[in-house]
Amino acid sequence: MTSAEERPEAEAPDASGWSEDTSRHFIDYGAYFVPERETQIDTICSVVPPAPEGALIVEICCGEGLLCEALARRFPGAEIHALDGSETMLAAAKTRLEALGASHRTAVIDIAEAGWRAFERPVHAFVSSLAVHHLDGPAKARLFKDLAAALAPGGVVVICDLVEARREAGLALWRRHWDDGVRERSLELDGNEEMLEFFREDGWNYYADPDGDPVDMPSPLLDQLLWMADAGLSSIDVHWLRAGHAIFSGVKP
Length: 253
Ligand SMILES: C[S@@+](CC[C@H](N)C(=O)[O-])C[C@H]1O[C@@H](n2cnc3c(N)ncnc32)[C@H](O)[C@@H]1O
Known about the structure:
alpha/beta, seven-stranded mixed sheet, Rossmann fold, 7 strands, single chain, 8 helices, binds S-adenosylmethionine
């Protein structure tokens, strides 16, 4: 891990608000800044139904591939499609899936576009972690409808993402809880709080400045559950939440 003095200046993001430099930044610091990352990954995998041989599991905005690697380990007969807008992220995900010998494909997508949402066969599970907040509310509702339409009966959509706090008290709580999580991780991994200081300086905590970056558009959790219901999903549940990071899912009847 580099010290604060050695860290390079971040390049400006591209039109979509995310750059390859942002990808490298996320890969470097995700272990510190994503609250209870292992629990998040285990929770998402645990609510995907057992996958029959050849079942299609699609990860939207797979990042460096930690979740699709866990899914491939848990469901070795499944075919994993790892989708992302960043070549840096897709290369890392591909390396992980190849190392496992998992049946997989990777593809560049823009999550906001609809073109990638058609599949050769019904999908067993769509999962996405920390990415749907790059869409505004109506675009999230549209995404959930398109994913529900592409699912096989009994298939799931599992979303892990930042959600919007409805009240100042809730915002302040999640801001503190996220700082607490980074402090815990910083102490656990490095034995000091340097990464918490960097987390704050870097403006990473959305709940400290919710209007700070227009690329971040979390929606309230209740709205997202209702959009899942409007999309025709049922058995909608919230499985886990910490520091504004929620995991929720719905099943295609
Ligand atoms: C916060 S990272 C999360 C990565 C990974 N899912 C995880 O949980 O570790 C957001 C991811 O979304 C991708 N991304 C951002 N904007 C995107 C867009 N418009 N279309 C597709 N991918 C995008 C980034 O490349 C990055 O991999």
